[in-house]
Amino acid sequence: MINDDIIRLRALEPEDLECLYQWENDMDLWEVSDTLTPFSLFTLKKYIETCHLDIYTTKQLRLMIERVDTNARIGLVDLYDFDPYHQRAGIGIMIHNTENQKQGYATAAIRLMIDYCFETLGLNQIYSSVPSGNIGSRKLFEKLGFVQTGYRKNWLRRGNGWEDIVYFQLLNQ
Description:
This protein is about 30% helix and about 35% strand. The chain is of the alpha+beta class. An 8-stranded mixed β-sheet has the order 1-2-3-4-5-6-8-7. It starts with a strand and ends with a strand.
């Protein structure tokens, strides 16, 4: 486990299946996760059964974010598009309930992942793409030292309109 005084990041367990099922099928989150169809319990069970595989094999890592004091599940943090040759990975985060947002959990989780990426995995950089309207996530990445490095116009379809994407990058100093 990766932890600080506030949260712990841990591997997914079979006991997380129902929680993951609810979160992955929350249509309000589909907009930020590029999901268009629901996930079945069967699919998520198989995912949990294989998520123990090494990041070098799967090119991704998803960890549950738990509060240290209550063991309550509050969200997920992901590494994706892991590229060991170019020493980089994308990072994403989701804090599910609004009462858990703006409590410092996302900041703590990203900080722990930055340390893990740079110190354990030896990455040169981590990056994230954030919808331009997601001001909270943009501020989060900027606060943690990520630099805006790009912008794609009309990248995400939103109902009858379009939304831009902002790219952030953090280099290992």
